[in-house]
Amino acid sequence: MEIDIRTASEIGVAVRAARKAQRLRQDDAAGSIGVSESFLGKVEKGAESVHWGKLFQVLEGLGVRVTVDIPDEAGELFAGEAVKRYVRVERAEKRRRAREDADES
């Protein structure tokens, strides 16, 4: 089912519904996802200031997929930016591995 999300509180409603559909208590869901029960509660209440990485961890853990509908003319720019980000992440990972290898020597 697709739902248009426009606010943090609407994301919270979606997360709560996904958790309840799986018949999970909040504490059990939080534990299996790897976040605190307090954090999951904030997400479900639609708190405006949550950590993006953890939010996506919760969404993934509950099987909630996020789709962004951008204007067609932005699609090519998005693809270019995604490639640039991938290259930056790969370079950073290569530097991290090199530092670890140097530290082990």
Secondary-structure topology with pairs:
Layout: H1 8-21, H2 26-33, H3 37-45, H4 52-61, H5 72-104
Helix and strand element order: HHHHH
User: CATH superfamily name of the largest domain?
Assistant: lambda repressor-like DNA-binding domains
**Shape label:** flat
**What is the name of the CATH class of the largest domain?**
Mainly Alpha
Number of DSSP E strands = 0
The CATH topology of the largest domain turns out to be 434 Repressor (Amino-terminal Domain)
* Beta strand %: under 5%
The average pLDDT value, as a whole number, equals 89
Oligomer kind:
single chain
Radius of gyration: 18 Å
> Helicity, in percent?
over 70%
End-to-end Cα distance: 53 Å
Number of helices: 5
| Contiguous runs where pLDDT drops below 50 for at least 5 residues | none
In the CATH hierarchy, what is the architecture of the largest domain at level 2? Orthogonal Bundle
How would you sum up the major sheet? none
Broad structural category: mainly alpha
Give a short synopsis of this structure.
Residues 15-70 form the HTH cro/C1-type domain. By secondary structure, the protein is mostly helical. It has two domains: 8-61, 434 Repressor (Amino-terminal Domain); 70-105.
What does this structure look like?
With 105 residues, the chain is mostly helical. The chain has two domains: 8-61, 434 Repressor (Amino-terminal Domain) (Orthogonal Bundle); 70-105. It has five helices and no strands. 12% of the residues are buried. The mean pLDDT is 89.
